[in-house]
Design brief:
The chain has 176 residues and is of the alpha+beta class. The protein has four helices and nine strands. A hairpin with a 2-residue loop joins strand 3 and strand 4. The two termini are 24 Å apart.
């Protein structure tokens, strides 16, 4: 297995990120305009990073942090890189950033049909707190809302998670 490096996402990464986004999420993929808008809010309220391997983007992730709350906006891992711990490492870095910004809780939405991502989040201590019916468009798939209390959770550095992919939805995170 090749080494994975993590670094902040920049607009120079958008072509490669959008290719991965489209391959994973099809019609529900975020647009270039949406991602440019998100990156424009770094570092004030957003934190985006990419996972690179051999010069290619193997995954990416994003966080919104404001006040005592943070939201995982996206986690995506290339399908050929699943089960290598990349999703776990991306999530751990988002949680560390949320803590460093003073967040006490983290929320996310995950597709109801994405058991792989749900397992990753549960492994890290997230608990289901609700359902958003028809959240993902245009599919109409429901989203499971999950929450992690950072005051109760550990460091989150255990990498036994399965590297699930999650990606953005119309107005929040999506998992595919």
């Amino acid at each position: 297995m090749t080494e994975i490096t993590f670094r902040p996402m920049t607009t120079a990464d958008l072509d490669r990120v959008l290719e991965l986004e489209l391959s994973l999420f099809g019609e529900e993929a975020w647009s270039r305009q949406m991602l440019v808008g998100e990156l424009g809010q770094q570092p004030a309220s957003r934190y985006y990073l990419v996972a690179e391997s051999d010069g290619a983007i193997a995954g990416y992730a994003g966080l919104l942090a404001a006040g005592g709350q943070a939201d995982v906006l996206t986690i995506a891992v290339a399908a050929d890189r699943w089960s290598q711990g990349i999703g776990s490492q991306l999530l751990d870095r988002l949680l560390a950033e949320a803590r460093s910004r003073g967040a006490t809780e983290v929320f996310l939405e995950v597709r109801a049909d994405n058991a792989r991502a749900q397992r990753l989040y549960q492994w890290r201590g997230f608990a289901e707190v609700g359902i958003r019916r028809g959240y993902y468009q245009p599919s109409g798939m429901d989203a499971i809302v999950m929450r992690l209390d950072l005051r109760q959770s550990g460091s989150g550095d255990d990498s036994a998670g399965d590297g699930a992919s999650a990606g953005p939805g119309a107005s929040g995170s999506q998992a595919s």
